[in-house]
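Class prep. Sample record?

___
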Amino acid sequence: MNWRLPMACALAAVIAGCASVPDKLPPPTLKARVPLAGLPTSAHAGWPDPQWWKRYHDPQLDRLVHMALANSPNLAVARSRVQQAVQRARVVAAQSGLSVGASAQVSRKRMSEHGLIPSKFLGFTWYNQADLGVQLQYSFDWWGKHQAAVEAAIGQARAAQAQRSAAALALQSLIARQWFGWLADQARLKLASERVTAQQKLVHIARVRTDAGLESADKVHQARAALAAARQQQTAFKVSARTRRASLAALLGRAPAQLPALKAHPLPEPHASLPDDAGIDLIARRPDIAASRWQVQAALRQTDVARAQFLPDISIKALAGLSSIDLGKLFETGSRTFALTPALHLPIFEGGLLQANYGMSTARLDAAIAQYNATLVDAAREVSTQVLAIQRLARQREQQRARVQANVRIASTARARHAQGLTSARPALAARKRLLTQRDAAVALKAQALTAGVGLIQALGGGYRSDVSKSTSTTSRSGASHD
C-alpha cells in the first residue's frame, strides 16, 4: 500500500503540469496571389530564363556575370550563411533519437590514510581502476518536439538557400545595369565628341566673322561658352564610364586593373513584358517571397517546440560495461556492470520562463507573417513600377525617334544648301549639333528602357523557381495553409 501515495503525487504533478499547456496555434493563412490587377500582360511573354542575361546575346556580359557569380564577396557571404543553416539543421537532427557512446579509461589512484575507509584497513594505499563501457540514451518524442525542431531548422536552411538565390539575382541585375550603363556612356561620349568638334568649327567661324567686322565679339563669347558646355558633357561621360568600370570590378571582387578589356558596341534592343500569369505564379518565382514563406513555416514549427516544453519529457539511459580495480580481472564475468535509468522531466514551477519562451516564439511567427505580407506588397509594387516605366519609356522612345528623323531631314537639307553655296557652314553645323543632341537623348532613353527591363526581370524572380509542391506539403504538415 506504500506505493499508492507516490503514484498519486506523481499523477497529480503530471495533471498540474499539463493543465497550463497553451492550445495549438490555428494555421496562419498566407496569400498565394500578388495583386497586379490593371497591368497589361502578354500571352506571348515568357518568364525569365535562369540565365536571362543571355537573351541579349552579348558574350562580354555573359563573361562578366560568370565571373561575378564565381568571385563576388557578397555572394560568398550568402553561400556561407546557407552552409551554416544546413549544418545547424544537421546538429538539431543529430540531437534527437538514439545516441550511443563508448568509453574506456584506466587510472591509478592513491587512497587517503585519513579518509572514510583508511588504507591500513584495506591493506593497500595505491590501486588501479579500469572501466570499459557502452552508454545508450533515447528520448521519446511523444509530443513532436524534436521533429518540430528539425523541421524548423530545415525551414531556416531552405530560407537561406532562397536568400542566396535572391543575392545572386541582385548581383546579376547590378552587373547588367552597370554594363548597359557603360555601353550607353561610350555611345554618348562618341556623340559628345562629335558635338565638341562641331562647336569648335562654330567658334572658328564666329572668330573669323568677328575679325572681319561682320559680327560683334559677343558671338565669339557665346560660341566659346557653348564649346565649354560641350566639353563639360564630354568629361562627364568619361568620368561616368570610369566609375561604372570601377563598379563592375567591385561587383566581380577584383581591382579595376584586373577587369578584362571591355569593347564598346551598340546597345541591344530592349524587350521585356509581363507574362499573363504573373499575378498567380509570381510567388513561386520570387526568391525573397520563397524565403519569407520558409521563415513563416520555420517560425510555426518553433511555436510547436516551445509548446512541447510544457509537456513531460521521458528518456531512458542504459549502461553496460566492465569495471575492476584489478587489471587482470577486467574481462572476467564478475567485472560486469549494468545500469538502466528511466527519467521523467516535468516542468511545474518555471517562474514564467516557459510562458515567456512561448510568447517569444509566437511573436517571431507574427513577425515572419508580417514580413511575408510586406514582401508580397513590395513584389507587387516593384513589378508595377517596372511595367509602368517600360510603358512610359516606350512612348518616349517612339516620340524621340520621330524627333531624330525630323532632325535628320533638317540636317540633310542644311548640308545640301551649304554644298550648293546657298548658305554658310554655320546653319549646317548648328543642324548637325541639334541632330547629335537628339541622338544622345535617344541613347539615354534606350539605356533607361534596358535598365527598366532588367528591373522587371529581377522583379519577376529572374528565373528562380521554388518547389511549390514540396513547400505546400511541408506547410500542411506544419499546420499552415494558403488561400
Summary: Residues 107 and 129 are 5 Å apart (CA to CA). The first helix runs from residue 4 to 18.
